[in-house]
Design brief:
CATH architecture: Roll
CATH class: Alpha Beta
Distance between the termini: 26 Å
Order of helices and strands: EHHEEEEEEH
CATH topology: Thiol Ester Dehydrase, Chain A
Number of strands: 7
Structural class: alpha+beta
Shape: globular
Strand content: 25-35%
Length: 148
């Protein structure tokens, strides 16, 4: 799985909590989806507006598809850099691509730990497929065509 990371690439960091790890001392595989969510939430907040503001308009964006390719393990207390990029946007769905890197805290070069994607669809609170508001589509499309 090779994923393009169109500009702008939004970066945020988080530290691996002890509770994120499994019995082998590495980050449990499903927690990478939580890291994707952190990246996506901060991308939206910084480039458009928060998920809360979207929900106030009566829309929810559940993940309808996802994929992750694991490259190297993350461990307790690692500082992670989450890179998020909007890969596609339409009137009812959007796709984000991600890279999770071990930050260059202890080495000169960040280490790629995982990369992947999520596809989200717009639905109403009662679960019906809905169109994204034009301002959201336009705002995300414009953010995807400009550099940070």
């Amino acid at each position: 799985m090779k994923l393009a990371m169109p500009e702008p690439i939004h970066c945020t960091t988080c530290r691996v909590l002890y509770g994120d790890t499994d019995a082998a001392g590495v980050v449990y595989y499903a927690n990478y989806l939580r890291y994707f969510e952190i990246g996506r939430t901060e991308y939206m907040r910084d480039l458009l507006y928060s998920y809360r503001q979207l929900e106030e308009q009566g829309l929810i964006l559940p993940v309808v598809e996802c994929g992750v390719r694991y490259r190297a393990p993350a461990r307790y207390d690692d500082l992670l850099r989450i890179e998020t990029s909007l890969a596609e946007i339409s009137s009812i769905r959007c796709r984000f691509n991600y890279r999770i890197l071990k930050s260059a805290e202890t080495s000169a070069v960040p280490i790629l730990l995982a990369h992947g994607f999520t596809v989200l669809a717009a639905i109403t609170r009662d679960g019906r497929l809905s169109r994204l508001p034009d301002d959201i589509v336009a705002g995300l499309a414009a953010a995807g065509q400009s550099s940070p």
